[in-house]
Amino acid sequence: MTMKNTVQAVALWSEQAPSHSITAIMITDDQQTIVTGSLEGQICLWNLSVDLKISSRAILFGHTSSVTCLAKARDFAKQPFVVSGTENGEMCVWNVTNGQCIENAMLPYRHTSISYYHSSFRMTGEGWLLCCGQYQDVLIIDAKTLEVLHTLKSQSSDWIICMCIVHSTRIQEDSLVAISVTGDLKLWDLSSSINSIEEKRNVYETESKSLELRNCQAVRFCTYTERLLLIICSDCWKIFDYCDFSILGTEANSSGQSFAGGEFLAANRLILWTECGHGSIYQLVNSGLSKVIYPADGGMLKETVTPQLLCCTNVAENKSFSYVMGFLNERKEPFYKILFSGDACGRISFWHIPDVPVSKFDGSPKEIPIAVTSTLQDNFNRYNSTPEGIIGHFYAAVTSSLYIPSLDKLVCGCEDGKIIVTFALHAIRARLLDDHSLLRGSLPHRVFEGHNGCVTCLLYPHTESDQFDPNWLVSGCQDSSVILWDVFTGEILQNFTFQAGPVLKLLVPPAGYKTKVHLSVCCVCSDHSVALLHLQQRLCLLHARKHLFPVKMIKWHPVEDVLIVGCEDDSVYVWEIETDILCKMEFQTYIQRHYLYRQQYRHTGTLERYETGEMAKAILTSCEDSRALMTDSVLFVFQDVQRVKSPSYKTSSSYKLGTLSYTLAHPEKSSVKSTDTRQSQSPFAILPVKTKWTSMNFHVLLFDLEKLLEYLLLSQVNGLKSINSFHSYDAVKSAKSSTEKRTLTLKRNKTAGSLYQMNGQAKNASDQSISMENNIVKSLEEGSVIKRQKKKSSKKASIPASTKIDINIICDTAKLLLSCLFPWGVDKELDNLCIKHLGILRLQYPVSFGLVSNESHVSLMLPGWNHANYDAAKEHTLKNLFSKKVMDLSNKYINVIQSGEKNTGNGTVGTEIIIHLLGKIFFVSRMIKIPVGSEQIGRNNSRQKLEPFRNKGKNSENFTSSFPALYGVSQQNRHKFHFHDTDHTSLEKLISSWRDQSVEVIEAVQAVLLAEVQRSTKTLRRTSISKHPDTKVKNRMREAHPLPEPDKTEELELQCLKDIPVKTSLTLETHDNSSKSAVFQEAENVPDKHVSEEAESADDVKPTPWMSKVCFCKVC
Amino acid sequence: MAATASGAERKVLEEEFKWLLREEVHVVLRQLQDILKEASKRFTLPIGAIDGQMKQENFILGSSTMDQVKGVLTLQGDALCQADVNLKMPRTNQLLHFAFREDKQWKMQQIQDARNHVNQAIYLLTNRDEKYQFQTGSEVLKLMDAVMLQLTRARNRLTTPASLTLPEIASSSLTKMFTPALPGDILVNFYINLNKLCLLVYQLHALQPNSTKNFRPAGSSVMHNPGSMLEYNNQRFEVSHVQKVECVVPWLNDALLFFTVALQLCQQLKDKISVFSSYWNFSPY
């Protein structure tokens, strides 16, 4: 849970919308959201306005296979949750207001239909999901936990293909009507079985009748008569009497289109729809009730209903296939009846169904036109105001891209075969921001020419494993060639050519593998062949071309030189990797199995074994840990990125000391939370996302707020008044002796030129944090020096740290994030102040944010997300406001924090304010995301902790006195974090009230940012008028005012500021003060909670030496 | 390759692709449907049979190496409607005989699922005959993916029997179907493995509560080896003997063959479509 709390995702859409072949569609109970599930596995949320306007809102990633069904998962008025089921058995509960994944599960069941059932007075818990699908009988799944509670059993079990819950006031019993694949109608009592089900007793159907219907599609109960049952088969539909299941009417399919579903419009009218998207309305001429009224028939099965076709719906001219449809009765207001459909091309269509449908005068059916229709692409065309790729318009369309975190480079492969390498951050800034200094044409870049066809995949193997030369870049092309480049010079080191169709994927074998695949990459081609390329020797080791089906999985045998290829038909091919032609004899024993054949290829590769079924599974599981999956799905890309972001944990042993420099954490801490993805090397990453069926789709920017803060603060602490705060920081972080470090940092401060040497020393030193900090302060030029040096050294075996955290980059990243978050267009003056003083820049267009629910569930806002928030007229003025609520929240926030405080937010240089703002954002986003319970505990604990500190503030050895600790340690140490935040009580209260009102994180963040920016710029204006060089005076002034809670960060800024001109000899002294000051401040803030307005409270606690040292003037 | 394709070349390719969608796809789909219908026939659907009575088939289950267990099973579609099991106890040489109760039959879920999956695949292909015009390559690919998914599942159901724990087998309602009732120390399980109908008979012996033997309950498995332990009804048992007898069901063999051929056909069609994709530069084709 930890990592996701601090990651802020921003989507960069391209002009092409992600493909979204709708396989399931529903409209939520509040009738404001359309939910669609797709073949690609994503779920889209669409806004539906009162006047039936459709605009896309968000796309939810998380499923790995196609969505088969959607259903509501709670009482919608209370919790706007929807559940989705997929082809491979994943289930996920989503909050449709913000796209958050509430719960997810993987069950071995493929559902085709889910119905939510809740009986508030008889049932404990959140209700049930009744599920049917490609398994026997009906499953009852807990709507909250997604665990299988029970099964509704049947005497002759078979798959249930459709069902509906019958709720009848007349019968006083909720029942489930279901039809099996063989056409048996089954009826289970629901409300009277609740107890039995909760006690896990067997529940069998109360009635079962063979209707001998084939290919049933849907069953519907008429709520108007509470009598009729509509059963729709692909070739006909029938009306049954619910009392005795006798047939009342039937109508065969005349159009040749298969029926897909239907619904009762009224007591004697019904609407049917087909797989081809056609709807038709029928009138039941003779009411089915007649038979009951005249029982003289003696229960004879006489057809008493004759349907008459009244109306037809019209399908759009752009024809698609496989439609899924639904009907919405009684739209709240205005009173509409709507037939809706979604098709394989991703088009949503709506039809108004008149309240009283009538046929034409001549009796022929009337045609109902489409009322509204929309696709994702329509929305993209309308709202996505920068319809260009990630690198702009210089080149042909980008077909593949790659982000190299260690170099901060973005590599884009284009349609015309060119590969463009740019600085990632520059590219993003140019793309997003209204930046005059960055002329878009002058984006620094390098073009690699070598491919003739479109570049299909890119790989930077050094990111995956340190063994690879950091110069190597591998690209695959549509013309079946693979080129090995020098990423720095653009030189072609080797060109491999196959005759195997487009290269689909480039993979790196697991790092632990030592023998022949060492320094090789795997290349999967579209003819299902796999090639193993040795990069060092520039040699194709193996080209395995026997596979009949697409490659699903590649594994390496841990001991022998064997490549194991798993295909989509579940067969397995075992290939011997040989660099020489001589076949090794020891393999003979390995081969003694059935299904075996060998085939020698020209010079590469011997098929050792071919297996299917159980044996294939056994082989795959035998090398569980050495695999590389073929993954197209976005989900894996997300997981991938987290893996990429934490490379130091993959194989800790194989990493050189130098690489340890990206981990900030303690050795013991890292071992405990070795899976924690938070330990990323860079607070910023670009994630190229490809969805099925399409080429390059879009990019996701990931900002790790916490990392960002950590690095910024560290650089502050280090770079400006380094030794001491470093020391204090270190005292918190590790118990190691700091003398060596101190000298190191000192050296660095004095001689920036000797950085590389420093780095070498750092490598020798066992403490990672030193080298990390060294890395942090490297400036751009220094970075490039290192790069060059590294290039040289890379020829020798070991490679130094590949990650350089460049403070300029970090700072730019922070500004970029703030630029994205800031509500531009709310206040013109404020906008200008921001641009002038904060260095954050206006956005070119509203940004699509993402919400990361957990490591595999992400929702991204789509272009047009903001359309529903305000009417079109106002749209261009309100540029980047997440919702109207933000202004409200922002004002509330200002009211809360303004209590008695006036002198904060001094107009300092950009960085400090940015740190301050980021700190606030971080705090708020964490607060909102923390579940209520844990936060309470945290608070209690911190109160307890607080006591001793209040009393003996000076004994603060283990107390976090510098801000890196404040924000950085917090993740591992929530209590500590909350400790610091207890002084935010009023703020905390406000934010937890926001959380209770389910204010979305992004709203809160934007509101706080707006408020804080307003505050800081206010003072900025003031300070620019009157500058006070006298620190003491200021401090006195400050003393007069109790410290308002958000001042912690500012305080640091002040300290930092003050330390700028101070010589190193002085800094030791200031350090002591600063560490104390933080303690005092903490202590002081305790009373602050109770009497926030009282000026004396500060004095009550302590005479404050820090006050005399602190200056908030930026000039002194 | 694609980028260098000349205009004329492109035109030819485009024509070829149109032909593929218009003609070739339907040829393949026709073939596919024929194969699947053959496969489906093997599962003898209950609906459509003339007298509503399905054909019954008898299978004599035996093993070449041992003769302790003999079984005569009667399969009717997806259900085992009769079963006669003769068991010679290993030590006492006592002969035991069990049969299904008259009123009971046992559904072979694997067969039922395989049948349903094939029928789903067939259903996907209905309405896609010569009259239907495919608009894009991706439409064909999507259809093939859906069909292949069903076929893969159908095949997997037959090739991978459920792995169960011993208590699951013991508590299964299968044990209650026999007359005379199975003794407490005997467990039976039926399943399909590839083309074979298999019967497993476990003989248990109770472990003494004060036994020094380290009790380790066995996990899920298709077949448990002697020595596997279980706890059921608060008593601990150990498997002493396992007997497996099996019999080839010819029509399952056919069905599996049809599945494999159909899958390959689908993949080939997909590959044909994909060849053209490279000329449309990875855009939706």
Description:
- In chain A, helix 12 (705-733) packs across helix 21 (910-929) and helix 22 packs across helix 24.
- Chain A is 31% helix and 28% strand.
- Chain A has a domain at 398-584 and 602-628: 7 Propeller (Methylamine Dehydrogenase, Chain H).
- Chain A has 31 helices and 52 strands.
- In chain A, the strands form 11 sheets. A 9-stranded antiparallel sheet of chain A has the order 2-3-4-5-52-51-1-50-49, sandwiched between helices. A 5-stranded mixed sheet of chain A has the order 10-11-12-13-17. Chain A has a 5-stranded mixed sheet with strand order 23-24-25-26-30, with no helix packed on it.
- Mean pLDDT of chain A is 68; it is low at 288-302, 580-604, 630-680, 720-804, 871-878, 900-908, 932-983 and 1024-1116.
- Chain A is α+β, with helices and mostly antiparallel strands and 1116 residues long.
- Chain A starts with a helix and ends in a 7-residue tail after the last helix.
- With 285 residues, chain B is of the alpha+beta class.
- Chain B has one domain (13-43, 62-281).
- Helix content of chain B is 39%, strand content 25%.
- Chain B has 5 helices and 10 strands.
- Chain B has helices at 7-42, 109-125, 137-159, 166-171, 250-277; strands at residues 56-61, 69-76, 79-88, 95-100, 106-107, 178-179, 186-193, 196-206, 229-232, 235-248.
- In chain B, strands 1, 2, 3, 4, 5 and 6 form a 6-stranded antiparallel sheet that branches. Chain B has a 4-stranded antiparallel sheet with strand order 7-8-10-9.
